[in-house]
Amino acid sequence: MKHCKGGDLYHYIQNKKKQNTPIKEKRILIWLTQILTALKFLHSNHILHRDMKSLNILIDSDKRVRLCDFGISKVLENTLDYANTLIGTPYYLSPELCKDKKYSWPSDVWAIGCLIYELATFRTPFHSTKGIQQLCYNIRYAPIPDLPNIYSKELNNIYKSMLIREPNYRVTVQQLLVSDIVQRQLKLLIEEKIREKQSMKKPLKEKQTIENDNLGANEQEVKTLLLDIVDV
């Protein structure tokens, strides 16, 4: 992993909070796309992160985010496997974890939803001053808060799709990656990476359009570009 001069996302958020400066939707979408790309890579290799939070996301000198701290990650044998250890940062716990149920890939998606809310409001969507039991109750039953009105309905909808309490109905990483709002950002990020490569005078195949649910007609080329966009 390259050195990340920008520190971690948690302290970036805290600085914005002190400055009372909202994080722009464009920046949130860029980071969301990079995080989803990294998470797709992990899940495709049967790795459940289990501790997705702002403190475990680093920012490099180009303001690209990098996932870190895989100390409690778990390798699942296949995509249908589940973990059953209660672990992770409490404010990002999914409802299934709060119910002490088996959990899998959807729990990482829930944590990303909590992160999007934190980027937009400088706080997590669920909290409690009365301990973990009350926090878990809020995670399971409290109303899902909307993002502030300065953010688009499209972003609010995709954020809420990550916080569907029933894991079987929660949006998947793949569904998020092929959504219109993320596809637009993926296209911009890939075009930016192509320009960077061209400016370095390295040969590059003609860019392919992202069209299908495998992220594009030339999937291997797109995967290579995406791995350049975000590191894990």
How would you describe this structure to a colleague?
Helix content is 47%, strand content 4%. It is mainly alpha-helical and 232 residues long. The protein has 2 domains: 9-177, Orthogonal Bundle (Transferase(Phosphotransferase), domain 1); 182-229, no CATH class. Mean pLDDT is 79; it is low at 70-88, 206-221 and 228-232.
What is this structure's SSE topology?
Blueprint: H1 9-19, H2 25-44, E1 47-48, E2 57-59, E3 65-67, E4 74-75, H3 95-98, H4 105-121, H5 132-141, H6 153-162, H7 173-177, H8 180-199, H9 219-229
Antiparallel strand pairs: 1-4, 2-3
Helix pairs in contact: 2-4, 2-8, 4-6, 8-9
Quick one: how many beta strands?
Answer: 4
The gyration radius over C-alpha positions equals 18 Å
What kind of sheet is the major sheet?
Answer: 2 strands, antiparallel
Percent of residues in β-strands: under 5%
- Might you state the CATH topology name of the largest domain? Transferase(Phosphotransferase), domain 1
The total of helices stands at 9
Distance between the termini: 7 Å
Which percent bin holds the helix content? 40-55%
- Please write the CATH class name of the largest domain: Mainly Alpha
The class by helix and strand makeup works out as mainly alpha
Gross morphology = globular
Q: Report the CATH architecture of the largest domain.
A: Orthogonal Bundle
